[in-house]
Amino acid sequence: MTRIAVGPAAGLPRWSVVGLLPALNLLAAFVAAGGIVLLIDEDPWRVVRILASGALGSWEAVGYTLFYATNFIFTGLAVAVAFHCGLFNIGGEGQATLGGLGVALVCLHLDALPFMLVVPVAVVGAAFFGAAWAFVPACLQAWRGSHIVITTIMFNFIAASLMIYLLVNVMSEAASMQPETRRFAEHARLPAIHEILGGLGVDAAASPLNLSLLFALACCVGVWLYIWHSRAGFRLRTVGENPSAAVYAGISPGRQILIAMALSGALAGFMSLNEVMGAQQQLVLEFTAGYGYVGIAVALMGRGHPAGIALAAILFGALYQGGAELAFEIPRISRDMVVVIQGLVILFAGALEFMFVPALRTSFMRRVRA
Question: What pTM did the predictor assign?
Answer without folding.
Answer: 0.89
